[in-house]
Design a protein that fits this description.
By secondary structure, the chain is of the alpha+beta class. It contains 19 helices and 21 strands. It binds one RNA strand through strand 1, strand 2, strand 3 and helix 2.
Length: 603
RNA sequence: GGGGACGUAGUUCAGUUGGUUAGAACGCUGCCCUGUCACGGCAGAGGCCGCGGGUUCGAGUCCCGUCGUCCCCGCCA
């Protein structure tokens, strides 16, 4: 292929086929960079040696597809191109065939600058000819293959599950597919194969995996597409640790395929720790944790601060540290608190920032010194303190606000880290910090619907020790103060550099417990039967304990490829408004099609 | 649903306080060139300034609306 000729091939005849990249016409001699997915080789048309072929070569233009036959020649030492792997040789062409011509493309695959994304997506086939995209798509293939090979070697079967199915228990909106044969009824595209993989456990395929497309009709982000690919797996009889081990194994294989060695086991922290130390359930471990500085202070000092700044002593006083941010101007120091943090976490602002560290150090030299040594602050670090504004609240509301407050601090930590990224240099793309976040809460409070909802999905097991709490509060689905919020699930996330790669849990395999969960969620027997009847019935026929996880393949490849968006690693992605600009989808359909489906549109 | 950025030649961009003929680079076309590799030189073509309205003697520039792309919040376990 075009990128593969080397010095050792010199003297051999070769046939190359590919696209015309750059063309350098010097009159009697024409150089063409011939390109395919393997790279480029310089081919030479020489009027003196072959006038007919040279004349034909004058017609060549960008992106023409050609075949050339010729002799591989060693280049003279002074004409070697060190920038390309095939640079020591070139092909002296004896025969040229123009296999196809090309219109002038809106942009060239070899262009130094990038066309805007709208153009790239419309002409995706041209965009995909670019070296980076070829690299990313190849990387994706290698990663997927490594994962398949690894899981196969561990005894997992890859088993397919339906795309046309019914609504699954995840919380996102479904994509619906109308049925012609059953007018008025709809399939749902799976948000994940959750129930099918659990059924497979019940069926005795005790190690399952699938690299599978999932569909969620929610708003897009740089790291969210409406259809995305999951590495979905499930196994029978596992402790969470066993699932983690499998994931660490296939991620090692995947990253190795991407040229990166990683070292399991990954760090593990609980959800509560993550919130306290990072204000985030998917912390980026390349940045330092926040430090609750209360432990460094005497009660008197704590009182002094609490009074002076009107902050809670019972809530953390978080020190946020941005390493090496160095000296910043007074204006900058004073305006730090106005960054995005306030829009991130809804609700009344109750974060009191001691935003001007210099001033703080001046006003409270003793306290400041204690705190700085306690949090191991270096001289050129930027730091600031944040406390929760003291407002009279009930104890329960205060509990809630620990999380709320820490999340707000966490956003501020990230905003600042982003702002000073150039200074601290912590966001190294090749610095891979994996992390397990464990013991997620079982339920979370839904403010809109004023009820507790499953934080993961309703088939997630809970910690055995928390069973009593469940039973004691089984009828409190509408009570925001209910201890339901304290129940921990056997649910875990795997996180890499601030991105959630995947999420999983040990499932409920006992019907009695499943019934309690539905009850706690305020779901009647009939309701549960209507939604998940087939599954509940299956649970009754000897269900083994089981659990699993699903990881986003696109996100893994994105991070490995150093890309900023999923669109760089998905061949045919959609825009932020879920449109495919190349094929122009979605589109209206004909009246006849709608009629056949028994669907009428509101005008 | 909300906030922000952007939209000018095929492409990437510049365009001052509103001022008469809208520029550059790359790409494209033609000619010249035997060692280029981001080849070079000369000449040339190429514009619904996203779209619609308004203000004004005059709008790429100001205002309103609209469409599109991107980022974020909400949302997405």
């Amino acid at each position: 292929m075009c990128g593969e000729l080397r010095l050792s091939d010199a003297g051999r005849k070769a046939v190359l086929m590919g696209w015309v990249g750059r063309r350098r016409d010097l009159g009697s001699i024409i150089f063409v960079d011939l390109r395919d997915r393997s790279g480029i080789t310089q081919v030479v048309f020489n009027r003196e040696k072959n006038p007919a072929v040279h004349q034909k070569a004058e017609q060549l233009r960008n992106e023409y597809v050609i075949a050339v036959i010729g002799t591989v020649k060693q280049r003279d030492p002074e004409t070697i191109n060190k920038n390309i792997p095939s640079g020591e040789v070139e092909l002296a062409v004896d025969e040229l065939r123009i296999l196809n011509v090309s219109k002038q493309p809106p942009f060239l695959p070899g262009d130094a600058g990038l066309a805007n994304e709208e153009t790239r997506l419309k002409y995706r086939y041209l965009d995909l000819r670019r070296e980076v995209m070829q690299f990313n798509i190849e990387m994706r293939h290698k990663v997927a293959k490594a994962i398949r090979d690894y899981l196969s070697s561990q005894g997992f079967f890859e088993i397919e599950t339906p795309f046309m199915t019914r609504s699954t228990p995840e919380g996102a909106r479904d994509y619906l597919v109308p049925s012609r044969v059953q007018p008025g009824s709809f399939y749902a595209l799976p948000q994940s194969p959750q129930l099918f993989k659990q059924i497979l456990m019940i069926s005795g395929f005790d190690k399952y995996f699938q690299i599978v497309r999932c569909f969620r009709d929610e708003d897009l982000r740089a790291d969210r597409q409406p259809e995305f690919t999951q590495i979905d797996l499930e196994m029978s009889y596992p402790q969470p640790e066993r699932v983690w081990e499998v994931v660490e194994g296939f991620l090692s294989a995947a990253f190795k395929a991407g040229g990166v060695e990683i070292n399991p086991p990954f760090l593990r922290i609980t959800y509560d720790q993550a919130i306290l130390q990072y204000g985030n359930d998917k912390p980026d471990m390349r940045l330092p944790a926040m430090v609750d500085v209360r432990a460094a202070l005497t009660p008197e000092e704590l009182n002094e601060l609490a009074t002076k700044f009107r902050i809670h002593k019972e809530l953390p006083i978080q020190l946020i540290r941005i390493p090496k941010a160095g000296d910043i101007s007074g204006t900058e120091r004073r305006t730090i608190g106005t960054y995005g943090a306030y829009q991130h976490v809804q609700g009344p602002s109750f974060v009191q920032l001691m935003t001007d560290p210099k001033r703080f150090a001046k006003d409270y030299p003793a306290i400041s010194e204690k705190i700085l040594s306690f949090a191991k602050i270096e001289p050129d670090d930027l730091w600031l303190l944040a406390g929760a504004i003291d407002k009279p609240e009930s104890q329960a509301a205060r509990e809630q606000s620990v999380q709320h407050f820490c999340e707000k601090c966490g956003f501020l930590r990230l905003d600042l880290a982003q702002k000073y990224a150039a200074k601290h240099g912590a966001f190294q793309k090749r610095d891979f910090r994996f992390l397990w976040v464990t013991d997620f809460p079982m339920f979370e409070w839904d403010k809109t619907e004023k009820r507790w909802n499953p934080a993961h999905h309703p088939f997630t097991s809970l910690h055995e020790e928390d069973m009593a709490k469940l039973e004691a509060n089984i009828d409190s689905v509408n009570d925001p103060q209910s201890p339901l919020g304290e129940i921990r699930a056997l649910a875990y996330d795997v996180v890499l550099n601030g991105t959630e790669l995947g999420s999983g849990s040990i499932r409920i395999h006992r019907q009695d417990i499943q019934r309690k969960i539905f009850q706690a969620l305020g779901m009647s027997e009939e309701e549960a039967r209507a939604r998940f009847g087939f599954f509940l019935e299956a649970l009754e026929y000897g269900t083994p304990p089981h659990g699993g996880i699903a990881l986003g393949l696109d996100r893994i490849v994105m991070i490995l490829a150093g890309a900023e968006s999923l669109r760089e690693v998905i061949p045919f992605p959609k825009t932020a408004r879920a449109v495919d600009l190349m094929v122009d989808a979605p589109t209206p359909v004909s009246a006849a099609q709608l009629k056949e489906l028994g669907i009428q549109l509101k005008s």
